[in-house]
Amino acid sequence: MPPIPTAELHLHIEGTLEPELAFALAERNGVVLPYDTQDELRVAYSFTDLQDFLDLYYALMAVLRTEDDFADLANAYLARAREQGVRHAEIFFDPQAHTERGVPIGTVIEGLSRALDAVQETHGITTRLIMCFLRDKSAESALETFESARPHLDRIAAVGLDSAEVGNPPSKFREVYARARAAGLKCVAHAGEEGPPAYVWEALDVLGVDRVDHGVRCLEDEALVARLVADQVPLTVCPLSNVRLRVVDRLEDHPLPAMLDAGLLVTVNSDDPAYFGGYVGDNYTAVRNALGLDDATLRTLARNSFRAAFLDEETRAAYLKEVEGVQESGQAGQNGG
Ligand code: ADE
Ligand code: ZN
């Protein structure tokens, strides 16, 4: 049975770097990795928290140097995503993690764009690029990054905010978000992953985000939940990531059902699938099994993903019809479910 059609809205392209490709690119670029084998590298994938993961995530990016590297990375992700039912993908990238290593921002954007254009052509998959600022770097660095991206803004749909959350509140980035909005870009931000509900309020009220990435800690603040429900602000939740980064203890304890029950516009996504044990379809399968979600709920999650996507209304309606088509023909669930 084919997988349910979905939009993936929370996906760091650098987080799709599988060990196999990391070693291949290291060889191609003459980069020496601090691991002798892929198995040795995989042992490092047992994370204690977000920072522990980020240390490895940034270290492995050393292998990404040329336009071809970024195109190969995105092609590999898109091939896997397509197999798992992704019809539309909104893809984060971290320009500062590359420019600080001497890789020009144009190399990153051109390489990724080549893969995105090709998959639209060959498989009709639509995509967007979301340029993220690293929140543990300065507000000035974010502004410089935004200005350096101006010649490429026709390729960028939105700005985002990621990396180490605690101690780096959204309000630090007020100005760069104002500039992005003035340039016609959509705005999203990671908030309420490790950080408190106050950071979600700031993302809404100071940055004016269109979506909140993660947002699971909103449940600690009743008034915040009421606001998110009233405005139907989408939350891009990443269940397997939350377990691997110890935001929740076990998938069986994940607040996804409570979030749906509260009326929040929740979507399911993979975050950094090469590191967290699964792509988006694997996340659907995992929550179905661990949380006992029925087929109707899985379809709601798929529908939500298209409702929350940065799509024109005609394309959105076409994708929503694909989800309803699954319902009518009795297909549902992932990977034979
Ligand atoms: N960068 C990549 N994955 C991230 C996550 N889960 N949270 C914050 N920054 C990230
Ligand atoms: Zn993320």
Automatic annotation (TrEMBL):
Which InterPro entries does this entry report, sorted A to Z?
Answer: A_deaminase_dom, ADE, Ado/ade_deaminase, Metal_Hydrolase
Domain of life assignment: Bacteria
User: What organism is recorded for this protein?
Assistant: Streptomyces coffeae
Pfam assignment, any one: A_deaminase
Record family assignment? Belongs to the metallo-dependent hydrolases superfamily. Adenosine and AMP deaminases family. Adenine deaminase type 2 subfamily.
The upper taxonomy is: Bacteria, Bacillati, Actinomycetota, Actinomycetes, Kitasatosporales
Cofactor notes: Binds 1 zinc ion per subunit.
Entry cofactors: Zn(2+)
* Residues annotated as binding Zn(2+): H10, H12, H190, D271
Report the active site residues: E193
Any idea where the Adenosine deaminase domain is? Answer: 5-324
Keywords assigned: Hydrolase, Metal-binding, Nucleotide metabolism, Zinc
Q: Recall the GO molecular function terms of this protein's record.
A: hydrolase activity
Does the keyword Phosphoprotein belong to this entry?
no
The protein in question is named Adenine deaminase
